[in-house]
Protein: Putative aminoglycoside phosphotransferase
Organism: Tritonibacter horizontis
Amino acid sequence: MTSPASDIDIAKVADFVAGRLPGFDGTLRVEKFAMGQSNPTYLLDAGEHRYVLRRKPLGNLLKSAHAVDREFRVQSALQQSGVQVPRMHLLCEDDDVIGAAFYIMDHVAGRNFADPRLPKLPVAARRAPIDEMNRVLAALHEVDPEQIGLSDFGPPGDYFARQLARWTKQYRASETRTIAAMDRLIQALGSALPPDDGQRRLVHGDFRIDNMIFSPDGQDCRAVLDWELSTIGHPYADLAGVIMQWQMPPGTDGRGLAGIDRQAEGLMTDQAFIDAYCQRRGLPGIDNFGFYLGFSFFRMAAILQGVLKRALDGNASNPDRAMTLGGYVPSFAQAGLQALDDSGV
């Protein structure tokens, strides 16, 4: 869904792409996608072709956040990997052009499913996109970062220890009030950190079905979007992120599957998704999954706290939506504690 773009200088974008972007005939029409809470995203109609522009938000930002240059780099590296991503065209790191760094990529036509219940598909057709999602995730985690030039895309060392420290710091920097459940979760995760098993793979960081474009029949993945949180890390973080999302309430805000009769609705259970992933990667199973799930809830809570802080500071792309999302931080923290408790961690 798009709307007129009032927060971007269209003339300056047109000047920048002139002579650089294939198919640009001198006329540029720009609309803003409703998606893209973190990095505002725009549809560019450049005459013969359509493109997408993603930029950093305006205003003061947390260090290392909204790294559009990393999004551009990782998707460029994945072009020939077998993991479907849009074709990258231009990266502009000069804030003077439109006020913030941005990049331009191909617009990928197809279907996007905002609701993991897939209500627009017949029951018998719902398993196929979920299985395709599973296939793409497993394929991503089989990519050798060194072979595609991304060996330096993340620091060495224990991924979960590093990420816990990073997101704790980000959370504290954007903290607007004391949330007891979040404080307990941070402490519990630190006490339950598993030994580093040495797995280093490219991770997406926000792998969900609504960050994917499917072919018009809804079966095959055409592109994985929103690589802002990608890094070299532990593949189980991505897998747990999928399960975390499904454990949220259904509907516009939660976009989850909690309370849904998945068998009746033609949807995979959490365990079926995990088992299919392990089969595709040749894994016997995953021990201590509750830790990875608890960590996923924690990180999302920290991200949503940052969204709330930007709204309060007047820098949110969609202020009302940002305030709503920020209100879920305590719920995510409590769900993280529950995941640890359920697994006996």
